[in-house]
């Protein structure tokens, strides 16, 4: 539209020049014509000024903000996806090196990194430990001696001195039991790695320790420790999972899962000689043990217990 008025103005100007040359002697007549032409030119300029903003707006109308809003929304979505991906990656890489073995796909084994790593599940809504998973070499075992006493009481913790055997002696029924033992983890008062365990299940005896009791965790822990010592260039992947029934606070059972790894992260089967062992579909040896004691009835919902052996 502006171009049209510009052409019109130029045409009027050319006409004025031609008319002036024809009528240069008639000054008065030219003056009158000049006045009218001046009025016409001013009118044209006013019209151009009035229509220019309208033309400018109409050209800008196609450039609506809607596409920008869509672009912004898309960008926001991409940012959320990137944040989610980053958060997920952090969870997967917790305690592990970026140089994970890409060829290893077994989901039951921590990604092989060539470094010690330990992953523990968060406490659940009832405050119960959920799992502990470690991958280490013999050289990674803690060098510091374990503190004699634990201070943290896992949920459901109660303790009793019960008679056992012939009823002539008493012993504490429960231990604050590590899922992954201290000889591997180096952790003591870590809530995510502690559950109430009977002394019988944890240490293999009512009082003291007996690592020949295949019903106890100690049987497997000491033999896995020996396996690491005998294979200093290999790795142990070891996961311990408490098994709860519903909302009970004390696990009725605990599952141990273990497998060896060579220096390239390839699996090596480990068998410790227990009749309780079985190998799952991923080639991992597993054992499920009862968290019980022959001298007690345990209320797994609360952690309370009664003695089944009478005093002699």
TrEMBL record:
It comes from Fructobacillus pseudoficulneus. The chain crosses the membrane at residues 35-54. The lineage of its organism: Bacteria, Bacillati, Bacillota, Bacilli, Lactobacillales. Keywords: Membrane, Transmembrane, Transmembrane helix. Residues 54-106 are annotated as: Disordered. SMART domains: Endonuclease_NS (SM00892). One of its GO terms (molecular function) is metal ion binding. Residues 56-68 have a biased composition (Basic and acidic residues). This is Streptococcal phage DNAse. Residues 69-89 have a biased composition (Low complexity). The keyword Transmembrane helix applies. Residues 112-307 form the DNA/RNA non-specific endonuclease/pyrophosphatase/phosphodiesterase domain. Gene3D superfamilies: Extracellular Endonuclease, subunit A.
